[in-house]
Design brief:
CATH architecture: Sandwich
Number of strands: 7
Helix content: 10-25%
Strand order of the largest sheet: 2-1-7-6
Number of domains: 1
CATH topology: mini-chromosome maintenance (MCM) complex, domain 2
Structural class: alpha+beta
Distance between the termini: 59 Å
Length: 122
């Protein structure tokens, strides 16, 4: 009986380590910038080896500024109330996109087969 408990504990621990590792490791794939449900830009993070920022104007005259660095993306700054999007951290998972509700902006991972890349990523 003790061997079964030890094996179960080891399996649960291994699963936990794998989950934490996959959550903390950046996806480094293709992202989409979506405004009002329409994809406005597609960027391949694996091609971005340098640090750069992209300023995205909002329809209300505001802005969001994305930081692309080492295959990661995050909202660096924004002028929306609360700035919750800035506090979201790095985009890590397809199930948890970066969202700015006041500016109706979503930054999410996209499958590689989603189409051609735009001028931002080339």
């Amino acid at each position: 009986m003790t061997k079964i408990y030890a094996f179960s504990a080891a399996a649960v621990l291994a699963l936990g380590v794998w989950c934490v590792h996959s959550w903390l490791t950046p996806h480094a794939g293709v992202i989409e910038i979506v405004r009002d449900g329409t994809v406005t830009a597609t960027i391949d993070l694996s091609r971005d080896k340098i640090r750069r920022t992209i300023r995205i104007p909002a329809p209300d005259g505001g802005f969001n500024e994305l930081l692309l660095e080492n295959g990661r993306v995050r909202v660096l700054s924004a002028d929306c109330p609360g700035r919750d999007c800035v506090n979201m951290g790095v985009l890590r998972s397809p199930s948890a996109p970066l969202v700015c509700l006041p500016h109706r902006l979503v930054v999410r991972f996209a499958p590689r087969s989603s189409g051609t890349l735009d001028g931002i990523s080339q």
